[in-house]
């Protein structure tokens, strides 16, 4: 999946809200928990997070364990990740898997204070799910992601 939108804020502040850390749980309505399991350096960690059930719980809550890295990219920032085979799955969750994913955030040259945020998401939710349910959930999740992020940045 690819998601793209203009966000009214500077790249550093936007990426600070997306990457693993203190802001993400405050605004992302899909995430229900996030723990940084191991930190390798300031912008590099392994995190475990859980997501809420979706589509009236047709899609049960999921758990992911991802390696995450954030770095400079051209004039902006890139935060990327990939799932790891790590530890036991907690009860009441299905372990999902993220293939290489990333969010690119670059400033708009002709509109200071605005940034272009582009996400590439390759998620395998796993479990016995019809693809149509996954596609429906992903589209609404990505719309809500941008909406929730924009609200959080205004506070």
Automatic annotation (TrEMBL):
GO cellular component term of the entry, any: cytosol
Keywords from the named record: Lipid-binding
All copies of domain START, residue ranges: 1-155
One Gene Ontology term of the molecular function aspect: cholesterol binding
GO biological process, one term: intracellular cholesterol transport
Domain of life: Eukaryota
Record protein name field: STAR4 protein
